[in-house]
Predict the 3D structure of the following.
Amino acid sequence: MMWTTLGIVLHYYREKYDFSQAEICRGICSVATLSRVEAGEREIDSLTGELLLGRIGKEITQFELMLNEDDYGMWILREEICKAVQKKDYENAKQRIWQYRTQLTADQKLHHQFCEYYEVKIAIALQEKEEKICALAYEALKRTKPQFDISNRERQLYTPFEVELILILIQNGNFKAAEQPIDRLEVLLSYVETYYTGQKREKLSIEILLELIRQNERNESCGDAIKYVDKALLFLSESRSMEHVAELHYRKAMAVRKKYGKAAEWDEVCKRECKLAYFAARMGKDDELTDKVLRYCKETLEWQITEQEILFV
């Protein structure tokens, strides 16, 4: 029954979004395998099922995807790796990844990609060199997108792993020589906003928007940076998260000042954004950002935030 459910979900959304079977399964499994899964005639392991669903931004419970006792054991290990990384217990995560790899054969590329993805996350957390991070990310990405090219304008479908790996490569400067990394980020953002739902949509959309802001700041495209800040703040206003709110208001203040200078109207906008950033940073107990905002106000705006002003933000 559970695999019939998987096939129904895949078939329904593939038809709804007008995706071909080849687009969904490319790099994950064969078209013949997906066809048999949709027909309820073929079982696949839970990770393969999860990635196929990920290409259309959907998910069903892991227990609905579970195949057998061995598959359950692998799922447990994946959960332990994920939780260890979330808790910043990186030595434990590395040990679990090693344990996971000992159960794999060379041709289980999706499982190797899973391990490599978390090795990338650990390398970033431990502030490894960009070259190492990018090499690991490319290795993982090419497991399912062997011909990936940032300049390719053809429609492509992405799993959450693939979205994050591309984003990591851009963040670490690996696409500096590419024509338009901003274009690729906009494509990813549109894809995530159109097809993803729930926490994955929220998390990935904000991460992509933050990188779009950084890229435009580097290019001194202050107007576009402001546009993406406003989009990110609107997105967060519709969620329950306060993460990044203070940073976004601070970035908007700096972009406004850089674009419009000391013009009276925009000076007030800049000060208001600083007050919002300061207030949100204090609420989030982010002392470093709180001090940064105060220092920016004093040194650049030649102005100070008073407690009375905070009451009228």
About this structure: The chain has 17 helices and no strands. The chain has a mean pLDDT of 89. The longest helix spans residues 198-218. The two ends are 55 Å apart (CA to CA).
